[in-house]
Design brief:
Largest sheet: 5 strands, parallel
Structural class: alpha/beta
Strand order of the largest sheet: 4-3-2-5-6
Radius of gyration: 17 Å
Order of helices and strands: EEHHEHEHEHEEH
Helix content: 25-40%
Oligomer: single chain
Length: about 200
């Protein structure tokens, strides 16, 4: 699909004002459970517009509050975070076939690493799904796993034979980024997002 429509308008562009040419295939690549939820309102809007949404989540047990996770094994931590994200997906309304958890190679801190093996796994999935738009954290970020996922997806996006737009998320750990698109939301949507985030109980 020709993606020139994304260049229209003065920056930053409200996503509600984008003239979508038809149904697009969207792929979210999350280096942690809960990265999806950080842009949940935006993704809900895009799904409601009829776009096809797919999500990949790297499995990790990192990030659990120390007191909350006291006595838990690494495997138990990972299962807990997968369970929390699955609950969030169900509340969001995603069908099981629309998301998957990936047991990728993790670094010593149990967060996804930028490796040739991980890139190969991710590229195969990207080629199977053939997304028009990729959503991921920005590379200019203090979190190493965010930087790793960005680097892998940037390489993959440059290697495929069809046009694909990279949509980097502004996260609380993003150092700085250019804002090209935004989607403002009201109190009702803020409450919905808070319910989505509360599924990640181990993070509070």
């Amino acid at each position: 699909m020709n993606l020139d429509f994304l260049r229209e308008g003065a920056r930053p562009v409200d996503l509600r004002n984008v003239r979508w040419p038809g149904k697009l295939t969207l792929l979210v690549t999350a280096p942690h459970p809960d990265d999806f939820d950080a842009i949940g309102v935006t993704l809900r809007y895009l799904a409601d517009q009829g776009h096809e949404l797919h999500v990949l989540v790297a499995e990790t047990g990192s990030g659990i509050d120390k007191v909350y996770g006291a006595g838990m094994t690494q495997a138990e931590r990972t299962r807990l975070r997968v369970m929390e994200q699955t609950g969030s997906f169900r509340y969001f309304g995603l069908q099981e076939g629309s998301y998957r958890f990936l047991a990728l190679d993790n670094a010593a801190d149990d967060q996804v690493a930028d490796t040739a093996g991980n890139r190969q796994i991710l590229e195969k999935i990207v080629r199977d799904i053939r997304p028009d738009m990729l959503f991921m954290p920005h590379g200019n970020d203090t979190n190493r796993a965010h930087r790793a996922m960005y680097a892998m997806m940037k390489t993959i996006a440059a290697s495929v034979e069809w046009p694909v737009a990279m949509m980097m998320n502004s996260d609380v750990k993003t150092v700085e980024m250019r804002k090209d698109f935004y989607l403002a939301f009201d109190e009702r949507q803020a409450q919905w997002k808070s319910r989505l985030l509360r599924y990640h109980d181990s993070q509070h």
